[in-house]
Amino acid sequence: MNKVFALLGTWKFWKELIIMTVGMFIGAAAVNYFLVPSHLVIGSISGLSIVLSQLLPIKVSVMIFIINAILLLMAWLLIGKEFGAKTVYTALILGPLMDVWEAIMPSAKLAEMRLASDMPINTANLSSVMGDPLLDLICFVLMLSISQAILFNINASTGGLDIIAKIINKYTHLDIGFSVTVGGAIICCTAFLINPVHLVIIGLVGTWVNGIVVDYFMASINQRKRVCVISEEHERLRDFIVNKLNRGCSLYKVEGGFSKAEHVEIQSLLTKDEFAALLEFIRVEKIEHFITAGNVSEVYGLWHHARHGRNAKA
Q1: Architecture of 223-311 per CATH?
Q2: Which residues of the chain, if any, have pLDDT below 50?
């Protein structure tokens, strides 16, 4: 119990709670406004819930709750307590957040506004917010992928299919986006029970695109700069990186190809803001330098931990 109270008193807990709530608020809007009204079944538990709600007298939000409850035990046992606990929270609030969005702005009202406008429509589905399955698909995939990437980045998920994808990712080491696509495609095929073939095909395409976009957003969120600096004032640069940016760095002796003179090259992984701060420091201090920088999409291990005194690692 003491550990629980200690956790509740940390900024990390409240920051991640806010991030999870915002991420799920985006995901709930995607499901409520674009997935449910258009009857698209993208490879997700939300899509499977739509199929089952057509076959059983149960609301989509309630069906989402039931299926997620079953999958949460799998998350706790197969992935870990932290992921399981976070996913319990996100899964439980998806249905209620959908109801919140519906209370704020009913999807039927948006559909009526679209019908009253000059916007081109597909009269085959008057409940659709966008009026076209393809547009609904694009909007849903983009919003859901942002939500998934935000949550995966803090070792959480939207629940449902993401739990299955995370299990596949953990035990097969496949990219998380591809794992989302594989599990989603299987679920998507259940839509043959309620939807015509062309809508199922749209759903399969959406599932594939969802996986690609998740990987894109994950890479964007986790992108770092691998910075290499050669300068005669390398000690000042090392001091700035270590003591001001709180990042580790590595120093290498290199030999110039033309002059054969020895130099010291500093290598470090920095965020975009940290890289900008380093460039500003070099500009203000008028340090002569040679810099190369490249993007790194994935970083693992101790880099994520802030450097503190003797616990620092280069």
Answers
A1: 2-Layer Sandwich (3.30)
A2: 121-124, 308-314
Domain boundary assignment for the chain = 2-221, 223-311
β-pair partners for 253: 264
68 neighbors 157 (Cβ within 8 angstroms): no
pLDDT digits (tens, 9 = 90+) for 111-154: 666 666 655 544 445 556 777 777 888 888 888 889 988 988 88
pLDDT value, residue 283: 92
The strand order across the sheet containing 224-230 reads 250-255, 262-270, 224-230, 290-296
The structure's pTM equals 0.64
Q: What angle do CA 157, 162, 163 make, to 5 degrees?
A: 90
Chain mean position to CA 26: 11
Sign of CA dihedral 19, 23, 24, 28: positive
Two tokens at 218? 């994950």
From CA 59, how far away is CA 53, in angstroms rounded? 6
Looking at residue 236, its pLDDT comes to 92
Q: CB under 8 Å, gap of 24 or more: what pairs does 238-244 form? A: 238/266, 240/278, 240/281, 241/266, 241/268, 241/270, 241/278, 242/307, 242/312, 244/277, 244/281
Side-chain-side CA neighbours of 97 within 13 Å: the count stands at: 20
Compute CA 7 distance to the chain's CA centroid, rounded to the nearest angstrom: 24
Strand, coil or helix: what is 69?
Answer: helix
pLDDT number for residue 228:
93
pLDDT of residue 24: 92
> Per DSSP, what are the bridge partners of residue 293?
227
Q: Which two tokens stand for residue 64?
A: 């989402």
